[in-house]
Amino acid sequence: MLLKLSGAAFSGPDASGIHWPTVDRIAGELQDVQASGVELAVVIGGGNMWRGQDAAAQGMERAAADYAGMIATVINVLALQDALESRGVDTRAQTAIEMREVAEPFIRRRATRHLEKGRVVLFGAGTGNPFFTSDTAGVLRALEINAHVIMKATDVDGVYDSDPGSNSDAELLHEVTHLEVLNRDLKVMDATAISLAKDNSLPIVVFNMNIPGNIVRCVMGEEIGTIVR
Predict the structure, then answer these.
(1) Sign of CA dihedral 97, 100, 103, 105
(2) Are 87 and 113 in contact (CB under 8 A)?
């Protein structure tokens, strides 16, 4: 399985940066997942550190802004790797931009071998290309390692028919298709990520990671959140 974590997940109750108790809680849940025998990979965003679109909107050249965002994701990868290894969880970090002093370069066969050996593999630096989100990177890596499902961790209970932040009557959808997500512009992932998942019949489970234990529940197949398939 592949877990997609946003960078915002690492900031916890803070506005930005890394909230260490939150990272440690996430590491604890991933430790439980690994102990269950599931082969687990994680793709991490960098929005708690840097948002390329925001920087581009303020005048920074978009490709350069996106590369800065990819580097921000690696900071989160190293933080989670440290939290996991302090708990005795064997990990490997791989990045789409070479940073050999801190992580392996992404090599698909090496990643799958790590997974076969029971290591948690952490993917950073997105796809290595500007103009693609870490959500798209999550779907791409999931397909490359032949994951059965991608688990999209969010700060809401799943996919709603409208924004629950502005509409108190928003309805939680327990199951939708990829095509419905695209046609209705439901806020799950960006259209490129959803289209890639649709074309390859990759299910996506969207769930609230702020509820302790939900990562493990999702991995164990409990009916939480929304499934997109």
Answers:
(1) positive
(2) no
Question: What's the CA gap between 131 and 125, in Å, rounded?
Answer: 12
Per-residue pLDDT tens over the stretch 153-199: 998 899 998 888 788 888 999 999 999 999 999 988 999 999 999 99
| pLDDT for the residue numbered 165 | 76
Q: Which amino acid is at 132?
A: F
Give me the number of domains the chain comprises. Answer: 1
Dump pLDDT digits (tens) for 95-122: 999 999 999 999 999 999 999 999 999 9
* 72, pLDDT greater than 90: yes
| Measured distance CA(124)–CA(77) in Å, rounded | 6
Nearest to 77 by CA among 142, 21, 123: 123
Full residue range of the structural domain in which residue 160 is found: 2-228
Residue 105 is predicted with a pLDDT of 97
Burial of 165 (0-12, 13-18, 19+ CB in 10 A): exposed
Specify the CATH number for the domain of residue 78.
3.40.1160.10
d(CA 155, CA 143): 24
Q: What is the pLDDT of residue 113?
A: 97
Through-space distance between the first and last CA atoms of the chain, rounded to whole angstroms: 15
Tell me which long-range contacts 26-30 makes (C-beta under 8 A, separation of at least 24).
26/80, 26/83, 26/209, 26/215, 27/80, 27/83, 27/84, 27/86, 27/87, 27/89, 28/87, 29/212, 29/213, 29/214, 29/215, 29/216, 30/3, 30/80, 30/84, 30/89, 30/120, 30/215
Q: pLDDT over 90 for what percent of the chain?
A: 84
